[in-house]
Amino acid sequence: MKLNIAVLPGDGIGPEVIAQAEKVLKAIAMEYNHVFTFQHALVGASAIEKTNNPLPEETIDICEKADAILFGAIGNAAFDLDPYAKIRPEQGLLRLRKSLGLYTNIRPVIAYDDLLNKSSLKKKQIANTNILIYRELTGGIYFGEKKLSEDGNTASDICEYTRFEVERIAHLAFKAAQSRKRKLTLVDKANALESSRLWRRVVQELATQYPNIRLNFMYIDNAAMELIMNPKQFDVILTENMFGDILSEEASVIVGSIGLLASASLGDKHAMFEPIHGAYSKAANRGIANPIAAILAAAMLLDHFGLDDEAALVREGVDKSLKLHITTPDLNTKYDNITTTKVGDFIEDFINNPDETNLN
Amino acid sequence: MKLNIAVLPGDGIGPEVIAQAEKVLKAIAMEYNHVFTFQHALVGASAIEKTNNPLPEETIDICEKADAILFGAIGNAAFDLDPYAKIRPEQGLLRLRKSLGLYTNIRPVIAYDDLLNKSSLKKKQIANTNILIYRELTGGIYFGEKKLSEDGNTASDICEYTRFEVERIAHLAFKAAQSRKRKLTLVDKANALESSRLWRRVVQELATQYPNIRLNFMYIDNAAMELIMNPKQFDVILTENMFGDILSEEASVIVGSIGLLASASLGDKHAMFEPIHGAYSKAANRGIANPIAAILAAAMLLDHFGLDDEAALVREGVDKSLKLHITTPDLNTKYDNITTTKVGDFIEDFINNPDETNLN
Ligand SMILES: CC(C)[C@H](C(=O)O)[C@@H](O)C(=O)O
Ligand SMILES: CC(C)[C@H](C(=O)O)[C@@H](O)C(=O)O
Q: Among partner residues A80, A155, A164, which is closest to B161 by beta-carbon distance?
């Protein structure tokens, strides 16, 4: 298969982890005779630095022409501390999602047997957890009109949703549930928000088309508790943009490190894959960033094109690295000298030679 | 001291747990020669049933005249499943907060030594956790304009904040931090929301008035993770209405049960005290509702009037009940026949006779 992949490493640890994901994809291409080409482009703070624009035209252009996008992370501490900045790194990511129409963000949360004791949660609490979060990604309060009064003393954001926006992602979530445990949980705040009541109505209506799915509803505050108290009750979670942001980052505690969670952002025409973690500028260039989330994002990219064996091989490599403790310090491994690159190298070697790889 | 207390038991388990809190307050009044009078009023689904109004005029009136309000919980399953209802139980609570100007909601999250093994989190994770959440309660997306298009296909909510609203609660949070570990964490979503950037600016400015406070900023998605990964990093958390709702319910996993968390809602003229849990209609009238949150709400009421010894005695009673496993089934106690009323009775007996109370 020929795939033209746009690579947007972004800021902070983005470039380091994406380099490992790219390496893994190259190994897969070699092993399976695919032709993957990679085109790099700027986004975020590094794009602002060079072009004064968090999402240069050229980047949009490269992304639009690509078959898929591999995205790192954006943001840095200076911007985080400056709530006055008008041009911001995050605009790069948000505008990209919007302009490519990436309305569905899928975040799998799977507890690894080998990591059960790394989690803050008790083992019995999390063993066998397997959740798929469907987060709406181009609507809601992120994209509604924002206002700041002239005197700077009043600020507002609008959270708006249309039936159309809810329906298109809800169908995908119902379908995903059909091939899993057939349970769908809509998370909203219908006791306080008009937009949440719209979600609840539309999803209730669609449910009649999926009679074999058990549908339930949960308020976001309650879901934030239940996700920790009893994560195994969930199969597919469907939710709006902001709630999905919160729940999916929270869910990383189940897996043991946010450095392990990847996501796919899908639209009708485009597909983007990224780790869910941020740019963590503090950790940049120290070799300590966990590349697994980025590598699993690459696996999701392979899934997306039906390259099932290839994706499975990448995941096997990841599993093996975890089993052998070839992991970065966030997972507190036995070895204290395993860098970002070493983890990538290990998985690359595994792909080149699945039967022989061991700690070296 | 003479106190005129408005009691709004509300729906579901509200009346059962509030009855225990009232009993405890009566025991305190007896023991310390106070005169507490209690005036009951309707709110929520039970008010809708009787008056078609979730917050009858009479209830507002009673609350306005009272020195303090003891609130149970509102809502029921039928309304939760009906996103079309125009009159809703929650409006009772939300309008009450707004009309009494209760802009500061304070939620303490304290890990009990005796319950460390009840939490989903590992012991070492949570031991000694002591967090105070300051949640803004009368602004933000709960109270901004709500719209539903005529065809019912577009819905929106506005999240608006003014400098004034941020300042008044921020000062209180800074001051609270001064008498604690001197750390304040503002939780917001300043990388996506204009209203959050206003929060960050205002709090940054005020910080110059509190030079001995370590101030840091955290995005809500990150905070939802950090609260579980490393709860001990927090001292006072300050946040807007919706984020506070989510974080404080999530924080209940640290304590082991949401049936243990109480809150105070304060304004310039009025003060209301309530458990943070909901109405759980499913659990109603079965004697299984944990009254501790309501009883601790009563303790916060005593705090509010400077009745420190009285509040301490109530808390001692609560501690003793936990130590002796006189607790409802949510805490999986040794005994399987401890009802809501029994827990209340135990604490009442303890107050009447602190030195002699034991399991009977
Ligand atoms: C960087 C930020 C705007 C972004 C979001 O909130 O969507 C991030 O947290 C994410 O989840 O991808
Ligand atoms: C009932 C609901 C509207 C309320 C809220 O979201 O404020 C509740 O969850 C709370 O936290 O008191």
A: A155
Final residue in a domain of this structure, among A200, A233, A263: A263
Cα distance between residue B102 and residue B136, in whole Å: 9
Those of residues 228-287 in A touching chain B at CB distance below 8 A are 228-230, 242, 245-250, 252-253, 258, 278
For residue range B288-338, list pLDDT tens digits in order.
Answer: 999 999 999 999 999 999 999 999 999 999 999 999 999 999 886 677 789
- Please answer yes or no on whether A228 and B225 come within 8 Å at the CB atom: no
Domain boundary among B212, B233, B261: B261
B55, B69, B74, B90, best to mutate for ligand 2 pocket (most atoms within 8 Å of CB): B90
Q: Are residues B277 and B153 in the same domain?
A: no
Q: Which residues of B touch A197 (CB under 8 A)?
A: 83-84, 148, 155
The model's pLDDT over B82-139, given as tens digits with 9 standing for 90+, comes to 999 999 999 999 999 999 999 999 999 999 888 888 888 988 888 999 999 999 999 9
Residues B210, B309: one domain? no
Check whether residue B52 and residue B198 sit in a common domain: no
Cα–Cα–Cα angle for B12, B13, B14, rounded to 5 degrees = 90
Neighbours of A178 (CB within 10 A): 14
Residue A80: which of B227, B196, B295, B207 has the closest Cα? B196
The mean pLDDT value for A295-299 works out to 98
Q: Which of A150, A161, A157, A154 is nearest to A189 (CA)?
A: A161
- Whether residue A130 sits in one domain with residue A226: yes
> Which pLDDT tens digit goes with each residue over B5-56?
999 999 999 999 999 999 999 999 999 999 999 999 999 999 999 999 999 9
Domain with B109, as residue range(s), is 104-261
Are B45 and B181 members of one domain? no
Radius of gyration of chain A from Cα atoms?
A: 20
Determine the Cα–Cα distance for residues A256 and A127; give it in Å rounded to an integer: 12
- Torsion over CA: B199, B205, B211, B217 (sign): positive
Three-state DSSP state, B305? coil
- Structural domain tally of chain A? 2
- The answer to whether the CB of B35 falls within 8 A of the CB of B4 is no
Our mutation pick for probing the ligand 1 site, out of B221, B225, B226, counting the most ligand atoms within 8 A of Cβ, is B221
Q: For residue B66, which of B291, B311, B273 has the smallest C-alpha distance?
A: B273
> What is the model's pLDDT at position B122?
87
Do residues A250 and A222 touch, judged by C-beta distance below 8 A?
no
